[in-house]
Amino acid sequence: MVAKKMAEQEFCDNCNQRHNCGSIYHQLGNIKSPSVVVKVIVAFLLPLMVFIVSLAVFGEIFSKAVSTQRLQTALSFLLALLVTFVCILITRVINKRLNQVG
Q1: In this structure, are 43 and 87 located in the same domain?
Q2: What is the pTM of this model?
Q3: Total domains, the chain
Q4: Which of 10, 35, 58, 61 has a beta carbon 3.0–4.6 Å from 76's, enabling a disulfide?
Q5: Does residue 82 sit in the same domain as residue 44?
Q6: Per-residue pLDDT of the chain (102 residues; tens, 9 = 90+)
Q7: C-alpha–C-alpha distance, residues 96 and 61, integer Å
């Protein structure tokens, strides 16, 4: 902790913007803008969750329909990728439509 603090101080001592640094961070902290939490969840977590759920569902379906374990895994994986890709495309279309309206 002390080494990091000293390294930061040395870096700031050599910086020609060291006097403006605090005011810049203060201005950035006070910017009023919409939250990006929903966009982050939709962009990262939704496709991941769709992939996991669809992989589990297809794995269960193919465990009853296909006798070979490798074929079950391959089919489940490929169909889960396809469903996830379709989910991403639908999300992009919805996002474009919302941006055109707003």
Answers
A1: yes
A2: 0.67
A3: 2
A4: 58
A5: yes
A6: 444 554 555 666 777 776 777 777 777 778 787 778 888 898 899 999 999 999 999 999 999 999 999 999 999 999 999 999 999 999 999 989 988 886
A7: 34
The angle formed by the CA atoms of residues 64, 68 and 72, to the nearest 5 degrees, is: 60
Q: What DSSP designation does 72 have? A: H
8-state DSSP, 30? T
Q: Are residues 52 and 26 in the same domain?
A: no
Angle at 52 between CA 66 and CA 60, to 5 degrees: 25
Query: Rounded to whole angstroms, how far apart are CA atoms 48 and 91?
Result: 13
C-beta pairs of 20-25 under 8 Å, 24+ apart in sequence: none
Domain encompassing residue 51: 34-102
Distance CA 92, CA 39 (A): 11
Residues recorded for the chain: 102
Least Cα distance to 57 among 71, 75, 76 occurs for: 76
